[in-house]
Each structure stands twice: as C-alpha cells, then as structure tokens.
Amino acid sequence: MPRILIVDDEEAIRKTVAQTLTSEKHETAGAANGKEALEKLEGDTFDLALVDLKMPGMDGRELLTAIKDRGIDIPVVMMSGHGTIDDALDATRRGALDFIQKPFDRDRLLLAVRNAAAHGRLAAENRVLRTRVASRTRMLGESDAMKDVRAMIAKVAATEARVLVMGENGSGKELVARLIHEQSPRGEGPFVDVNCAALPDTLIESELFGYEPGAFTGANKSMPGKFEQAKGGTLFLDEIGDMPLQAQAKVLRVLEERQVRRLGGQKTLAVDARVVAATNRDLAGMIATGEFREDLFYRLNVVPIRVPPLRERRADVPVLARGFLADFCIANGLPARKLDAGAETRLAGYHWPGNVRELKNVVERMAILADRDVIGEADVSKAMGGTRQLAEAAKAAVASADADPMSPFLACRTYEQFKEMSERLFLESRLKANDGNVSKTAEELDMPRSNFYKKMEKYGLK
Length: 462
Hints:
Blueprint: E1 3-7, H1 11-22, E2 27-31, H2 34-43, E3 48-52, H3 60-69, E4 76-80, H4 85-93, E5 98-101, H5 106-136, H6 144-157, E6 163-166, H7 173-182, E7 191-195, H8 204-209, E8 210-211, E9 223-224, H9 226-229, E10 234-238, H10 245-257, E11 259-260, E12 269-270, E13 274-279, H11 283-288, H12 294-300, E14 303-306, H13 316-331, E15 338-339, H14 341-348, H15 355-369, E16 374-375, H16 377-399, H17 415-433, H18 438-444, H19 449-459
Parallel strand pairs: 1-2, 1-3, 3-4, 4-5, 6-13, 6-14, 7-10, 10-13, 15-16
Antiparallel strand pairs: 8-9, 11-12
Helix pairs in contact: 2-3, 5-13, 6-7, 13-14, 13-15, 14-16, 15-16, 16-17
C-alpha cells in the first residue's frame, strides 16, 4: 500500500485524513507546513503527498514548485476548502496530479489517492525501463580512445557500409554495434543479434537462413532466419571468428547476392539488412591458417572499429563505475549510492582482464553488499574478493616457467578457490596449446563452445 504524506496546517484535518486512509490500510505521516514537508520528503520515502493549498508561510503552490525544483519525483494531490477553478488550473500547471475540495467526500478522497498511487507506480516503472534501455546504448568514457570510437560510430552510422568491430571479451563490441544501428537511418528497424560462438555448428545455418517444413528432422513449420528477421534494420554477427567454414561460405554468398534461401526452400528472398560483425579473434592469423575465409573478411571489414580494453583507458574506470552504480540503484530500488575517492582510485588501479563486463559485475556487487550509501575502498576490496587474487595469482604462476607448480595454490584460502584456480590454469594451458583456437580447444575438452566462452569470461582468459 502507498505511503502518504499529509500536509496541512490544521491538525484536525491531518488527523481526519489520516484516519480515513489508515482504515484502508494506507500508511501516513503528517507535516504542519511546507518547510516541514520538504524536510520529510527529502529525508524519507513517500509514494504521494496530499497538500493543502492555503497555509501560512510556504503555501501549497510554493511547496509544489519547491518539490519539482528539487527533483523530488512524487505525485501531489492539492486540497483546498476555498479553492476556485482558477486555483485548480494553476495547481495543475505547476504539476499537481489532482485537486480535491474540503470538507472531503470519503469516496472522492480515496479515489484521488488510488489514482495518484497508480500514477506513481507507473511513473516509477517507466523510469526503471528508461534507465535500462538508456544504459544498454550509452557509451561512457572521456578518454581520447573512446572519443575516437564515438567519432567513428557517428561517421559510419550514416552510411550502409559494413563494419567489423574488434576487441576483447567484455570490452563493449555489442554496444558499438547497437549505437551504429540506433544512429543510422535504420534505427527504427529491428536490431537482430546472433552469437556465432554460442550456436552449435548444426544449428547456425538454420538460425541464419531459416528453414521450411521437412528441411531436417523436427522442422515441421516454416521459420524465417535472422537475415529475414533483420529486414529494414541491422544484423549483428557477434564472434564471427567462431563461425564454421561451411557457414562462412554461405554467408559470403548472401552478402554478395543480397538474397537468402531457407533450408529446404526453393525460392530466394531479398535481403534488406545492414551487417555489423564483431570478433575477439585475430582474423588475419586465422586466414593464414585456413580457419577463416579471406573473401568474407574483406566483405565484412569495410570499416574496422577497434574497441580498446579497459586497461588502456584507466581514466574511464571511475566514470563507468559511477554510471553503473547509479543505473543499478535506480533499476533495483536501492538508495542512491556514490563512490568516494579511495574507491575510485582502487578501481582504476586494477587491470580488469574481463573489461567493462567485469567492472559492471563488481560495481553491482558493491551496491548490494555495501552497508552505507558512500562506498569506500574497503567495500571495493570486499566486492572484488578472491576474484582479483585468484586472477593475479594465476597470471603470476603462468608467467614463470620455473615457478613452483604448487605456488599459485598456496594463495587459495578455501577449497572453492583451489578448484577455480585449478580450472583456470588447466583451461589456459589447453587454450595456449591450441594457439588460442576456441573451437579446437572446446572440441578437445568435449565441452560445448558456448560453455567454454563462459569459462573464458569468468576467468578473464583471452
């Protein structure tokens, strides 16, 4: 039930309104004047306010203006015993949601409260949704490297040129693709993303090109592929370096002919989708070893954009952390929290092998675990926990071939840390043995490629 602040200079009125509302299970609090009301609104949480129009000192109109000027987002219902139509119109112009006359009709009062509470809930939900949507397509950072990336996005977005986004896991390649889409003439169309590393080889063609009934076992209806679904918009091929060679050849043909044919189908369909691809792999090296088609590379790499890892733009770390913290608190209904200078310095000093994704996870963990609204260096250490120690110990262990094989495990304080350390070292050694080839390593380990990528992200492997 909503929590309601009743603002009226007459105590009898406050008590009468409170009794009416508490009989309907509402929680109430009172304020005898505008100044007291502002103090309570700034120091506590309310869902709506009932405000008397005429009060000594700061009247209802002035209080309403002060509420709006201070950014207190709360629905206000104005009350008056001598109000006129002009008063009601003026209150509405100042931002009041409703205007009711005293003495109150009980049903009218409860209806106004119900409507205001519903309006407040809807506004709060919209704020959360706007925050979530905005945070998905907002590129934070004022370093020269990020200014260059934003400038490149602005230039290429206005064209139909294909773009190849390159960068490490978690660096923000998908964000770049989304910004290109949103700033392009296709921005109102769909943005369809395909993670080529997460799709099994047997499904990637049916996902991309679609299929007709009978195309394979279990295909009992027509299904459009991603190229068709992206009509009028953008198709984002994430981790294109992990696409099987057979699928690469078919994607190349689609890009050349701008037509697609569903699996099991006879007719061709026009393709009207801009293609943006991304990779964390060295495609030039893969071309040399025959793992990636050179002709497809040149079709995709019309405009290359490199997203720098977080360690190359440490000055952006505090900016990103503040943004993530504010977004998370709003989206989860937490009190507004901020980082002190010590916390920001500690965050900026870490090398962030998992890049922006790792930083975002740590910030959200801090927001949850912090016992106060100002987050300090100790809170950062607590949130980062054993993850940082584990990664740094493993990095130090593999850096020296002559290191004591047991030395990295001596830093483990729990059995769980020991298991994670063992898994990280094992996966890293197998990945190195295969020259960074994820598909080959996953196949050797009999592990789905998508699972292997999750392990890489967890341990900051490249």
